[in-house]
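note to self: dont lose this again. the chain is below, predicted strucutre after it. 230 aa total, dont forget to put it in the shared folder this time
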Amino acid sequence: MFFFFEPTFIILIPGIILALWAQARVQSAYNKYSRVRSSLGLTGYELAKRLLENAGIYNVKIEVVSGFLSDHYDPYRKVLRLSPQNFRGVSVASLGVVAHEVGHALQDVEKYPLLALRNLMVPAAVTGSQLAWIIFILGLFFQTPFLIRLGILLFSLVVLFTLITLPVEFNASRRAVKLLETTMLMPEYELKGVKEVLGAAALTYVASSLMAFLQLLRMIALAGLFGDRR
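---
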């Protein structure tokens, strides 16, 4: 509770505001275009299968995963996991999200450098997110500079991971729009909806990156590295 009400918490407010706004935009855009049936006449599964095969990719499985907008591509197991509403969905919103995930599969096949770097950083980012604050708080409690700096270093890896994620996601969205426009010949008015949905989704990654950076600044402030705390 101390760390929630501690004065440095104010540092996080811009990130919290952006995160709430981004989430609201995603919900609004997705709900809006999930009611617009695409003229392509394909389900998300059918679109993913067609786009993958068109790109000569036959070793990527397509599975349903539980959860709302839980869609993701697993580069380790070569699996495209689609949420139920997008796996079976025929809306502009569903097809846009599916095409975005196919974009990640294409990045993987083409060995897109930033995706490869992000994949390499996953273990460090997971470790940092799980242990950084624990180590940092222990360092403050026991007044151990080594632990304080170790916590900050570990969380810096989390920040770096979120920054690398941004261009990876933006690139996947650009690929998605191009695939739908050139390969599937999706009409312009539907592409507009896809861009709106994916643009809102991209904002959530920006918010996540900003929040991580502000958390790092808060750590540095709590450690007194901006100057002695009185």
